[in-house]
Amino acid sequence: MSDFSLDRLRQRLLPEPTGEVKVLEDGATGVAATPAAVLFPIVQRPQGHTVLLTQRTDHLRDHAGQVSFPGGRVDAVDVSPQATALRETQEEIGLSPSHIEIFGYLPQYYTGTGFVVTPVVGLLTPPFELQPDPFEVAEIFEVPLSFLLDPANHQRHSIFLRGALRHYYAMPYGRYFIWGATAGMIRSLSERLVVS
């Protein structure tokens, strides 16, 4: 998306993590969903903005081996979705909150696995150091934001799961298969930015 700007991003995001229709992943009911939050980290690079993503380790209970944003379940100590996203980001990839400028929020996203996720969009300005938690994170990598926002790269896939045909978005990038909730949240941002 060639007309992307940080000012436009700020204008299109929600200023608070409430007050908008929630997004339901195919198969999600929203009933008794576990609260969670993720950081949608946009990195300001000289060659253009990128999105920082993680590859989860294969042994995790939820979303094992998948590409994801840093984040996780809300803890009792968390006073807000932002607090959850920042705490989880520091725990998972060692990124200090001092390197993150929060821009706003995307609509809550209900997953088919029983989570209601609040995406917290933040800007990361290098230099910063990362230290992945080897239990949770197999790899940290970046993808050009322009690639992720381009609808031409948003593929629709289907899978037969739990007795029903489910549909989901995917954004394959090199050897990375970005799909499910992560792709859904990227799609949510993309749709907000193309609205005139």
Description:
The chain is α+β, with helices and mostly antiparallel strands and 196 residues long. It has one domain: Alpha-Beta Complex (Nucleoside Triphosphate Pyrophosphohydrolase). The protein is 20% helix and 36% strand. It has 4 helices and 12 strands. The protein has helices at 6-12, 81-93, 145-149, 180-194, and strands at residues 23-24, 34-43, 50-56, 67-68, 71-73, 100-105, 109-110, 115-124, 137-144, 155-161, 164-173, 176-179. Strands 1, 2, 3, 4, 5, 6, 7, 8 and 9 form a 9-stranded mixed sheet that branches. The longest helix is centred in the last third of the chain and has 15 residues, at 180-194. 33% of the residues are buried. The mean pLDDT is 88.
Topology:
Blueprint: H1 6-12, E1 23-24, E2 34-43, E3 50-56, E4 67-68, E5 71-73, H2 81-93, E6 100-105, E7 109-110, E8 115-124, E9 137-144, H3 145-149, E10 155-161, E11 164-173, E12 176-179, H4 180-194
Parallel strand pairs: 1-7, 2-8
Antiparallel strand pairs: 2-3, 2-5, 3-4, 3-9, 6-8, 7-8, 10-11, 11-12
